[in-house]
Task: structure prediction
Amino acid sequence: MNLKDRWAVVTGAASGIGSAVADKLAGAGANVIVADLQVDKGRARAAAIEAGGGRALFVEVDLTRPESIAAFADTVLTRVGAVDVIVNGAGWGRTAPFWDGTPEFWQQLIALNLMGPLHLTKALLPPMIERGGGRIVNIASDAGRVGSLGETVYAAAKGGLIAFTKSLARETARYGIGVNCVCPGPTDTPLMAAVPDKVKDALIKAIPLRRLGKPEEVADAVLFFAGDTASYCTGQVLSVSGGLTMVG
Ligand SMILES: NC(=O)c1ccc[n+]([C@@H]2O[C@H](COP(=O)([O-])OP(=O)(O)OC[C@H]3O[C@@H](n4cnc5c(N)ncnc54)[C@H](O)[C@@H]3O)[C@@H](O)[C@H]2O)c1
Result:
């Protein structure tokens, strides 16, 4: 895979899966813009990539605030003109019965997991269209494909992100832009660390490969969609879930 001289924005790149994606893209030669709310961890990730011989810079963004996304896009586009790859990786959820959730909590989930990618993609897309090429990879969740107990609104937001992927793929194909989606299953990241051990053990028992995924394993799928390897793929959804979900 050769992404030399391509600019890639990776949201959520300060931690977990996004961090592994940033590393993989940089390893393939891309210049990576580490986009995250966590300034110290984001800067450290960019510095680590640079220390390893790659190219990266950190730009702060709060994906739940459209004005922060606009400022982020302005900084990025002023600096690089157009980006070649967008990875919408940031996301968050918390398990609780649907009927205990407040509308404010729903708003938080939808703002980050659905509206954030919409705003960011809209902000970065016009120069991509003008240039006539690019790749967008959305990190959704198997919750959005098959549902997830106690993650009902998170699943609704991720299901929306999957549907967004497919329709945007149809809209942008004529401009040479591929839009695809990776759905992680249970993956060993700081987000998963918040899940009680009892629930984690039950999940592992249900996974045919009998273990959690590693962030790097999800990142490999993102790397595939981000490069020319996926030149004839658009609007596709790939689960990386140890076989937990097998969707026809
Ligand atoms: N870990 C799993 O088991 C799992 C399963 C399915 C889907 N996912 C999805 O994979 C993606 C990555 O998850 P992860 O497990 O690596 O989580 P993580 O918590 O390790 O990383 C998420 C990153 O998103 C950033 N972020 C959160 N809110 C933000 C905001 N408002 N603006 C900008 N950045 C923000 C965080 O600072 C963090 O760096 C998410 O979209 C998540 O929904 C994860």
About this structure: The mean pLDDT is 97.
